[in-house]
Design brief:
This protein is mainly alpha-helical and about 140 residues long. It has one domain. A two-stranded parallel sheet has the order 1-2. A two-stranded antiparallel sheet has the order 3-4. Helix 2 links the parallel strand 1 and strand 2. Helix 1 packs antiparallel against helix 3. The chain is flat, with a radius of gyration of 15 Å. The termini are far apart. The model has no long low-confidence stretch (mean pLDDT about 85).
Amino acid sequence: MAKKEVKEHFEGLTVVPKKFVKKLERIKKATKKINFRCNGSNCDDAWDTKKRCCKECESHFGYFGKFEIISTSPKYYIKRFDEKDGFWRSGIGCILPRKKRSYICLKYCCRDLDKKNERKLCKFFYKLRKIEDEVKECQ
């Protein structure tokens, strides 16, 4: 993947107006409270034993969809994106803080969630949709 493609992809994302930044980042950060039952060593996605659920991060632009809203400048992502590994780094994992990750990365689960954590995840997406609607109204 060429740097030009990476630049075009991230520059095409919508950056939320300043008044929504803290709200969006707070919601993303709250996904830390969801128990995805991931222990890292017994992964259902272990066909890529190195990257596990971060596999193909580089070929999917960190799993940022082209209609996803972001809370910071596209330059932030372009600067950190590696053409070979995306945002994943050996020995570290994802270099993006939770509040800067894509929706897919925040909700990905290779196992079924229990009802309690499933409700938390649904609540997370409900709040994200609400912010997206508010952002659209402002544009």
